[in-house]
Amino acid sequence: MSNISKKQNQMTFNKIQLAIFIMVLLTVTALAAQTVYFQKSLAEVVKRHQMTQQENQQVIKESRDLIIKILSSGAGPASNSVDVSVNQVAAGQRALDLGTQALELNQIDLAILYFTNGINHNPGQIELYDALVNASLQAGDNEALERAINLLEVSTLNVPVDDFEKLLQHVASLREAIVIEPINFISLSEAENRLKAIKTEYNLDEIWSEEQKLAEAVSMLEGLLDEIGYATLQEKAPKYDAVVDEAQVLMAEIGSLYRLSTLYTHSQYVLEQIDKLLESKKADRYLMVSLSTTAQALLPEFWGDSTKQPDSMKVAIENIPSEIAAREQAFGKLIALEYSQEIEALKKDVESLETASNHTEAINKAEGLLQLVVSLAGEIPDKDTQENLSAIAQDIQEKIKNENSKRMVAYQKWALTNLRGFLNEWNSSIMYRTENNALEFNAKYQLHSIDQALLTPDVSKVYGRAEMLFFDKISAKDRPDKEYEFAMADKKSLTDF
User: Fold this and answer.
1) Count of C-beta atoms within a 10 Å radius of residue 241
2) Is the dihedral of CA 387, 390, 395, 398 positive or negative?
3) pTM over 0.85
4) Which tens digits make up the pLDDT trace of 409-436?
5) Residue 413: how many CA atoms within 13 Å on its side-chain side?
6) 158 pLDDT band (50/70/90 cuts)?
7) What φ, ψ does residue 136 adopt, rounded to 5°?
8) Is the separation of the CB atoms in 424 and 472 below 8 Å?
9) Are 270 and 219 in contact, with CB atoms under 8 Å apart?
10) Residue 354 half-sphere exposure toward CB, CA atoms < 13 A
11) CA 40 to chain centre
12) In whole angstroms, how far apart are CA 271 and each of 113, 119, 266, 320?
């Protein structure tokens, strides 16, 4: 042990002794009648403690004499500070005898237990302390020595005044026996090798997704930096700056990766929950939307992070969107399976449009089926099913277009039939045409019911010719009324075809 270490230990010991003395003084003060004298004496001890290091030994000696003087002046009984019964004295002696026998048999731990038990029964018997100190010194380990020191320190008020000095000497001898291990400071080469070993063992490209491993790596780096910190306190310490800088940079990198690793673990957990949902074959839309939304919400956290990521980590993160999409597609097929029968029925209904009683009925049914297709498309996220529904929708729209064309043709045919009947009769009675004939022919062929807005240009020309012939026979007086009646008459609608 170096001279500096010995001096430091001696200084520590002196301070502990002084603390014990002050503790005794405080306790005795509560019992002593000479309060003023004690306060002055305590102030003197504290003042002397503030002297230089070279005077510590003299202070301790004078303080010890002062304490003994105060104790002797009436602070407590001179023979023993603890009242014990005859049985306690006997128990203490019995423990001393048994402990001595155990020590002779080299049963040191058992002997220490006996002596400690004896002190508990009769704390004023100095022989028990002598025996305990002897056994603890024979045990030779720091733990036994520390336990003995602790027991002796708390027993300073229990021994007779005459044995107080001896108790303090025992404490000093126990402290001197404690073995202080020399500090082996880490060398620069050791620090460099340790850092290299940490980087090799905790390869970030391999452990980036293992939060426990990342935490272990940080702990190892912190331990290395602590050791380097201690080593820098020694004289002529080497320059550890490069190792410290590299270790701190690595710790910062691991800290950022730990955050990303936590996010990745969370995303994988969400995907696992989606897998469990798919395995259950339950098309729980609410749960799927919740899980999928959660997974999608994590993506910006990855993309917005500027941390340098290992290649394997980059690949794993880049695959998350496709993994989410694949599960969404699988869930879409699960939903599509629920609607498969409804979709098949829809196809048959589309085919049955051909059997409708008229064009309007077919169109109305087709438009209803088209709304159903749109509704199903919103319910089923499956891509294949969406394409199938899109094809069905196109087919329905084509049928609606065809039925509208057929209905318009049917309207033209009806209008031409009536117009032709009107014109034929008009031409056949050319010699006898009167206003009454015109009114009769209109009532028979319903010119007023034809909606000219629905007529094709060619048919509209025929209608215009018949209308001109009709109004030509109406008197000037009645013509405005008839024109009004024509305009306001109920027209034949496309829905009638």
Assistant:
1) 10
2) negative
3) no
4) 999 999 999 999 999 988 887 666 788 8
5) 7
6) confident
7) -65, -40
8) no
9) no
10) 4
11) 63
12) 61, 67, 9, 9
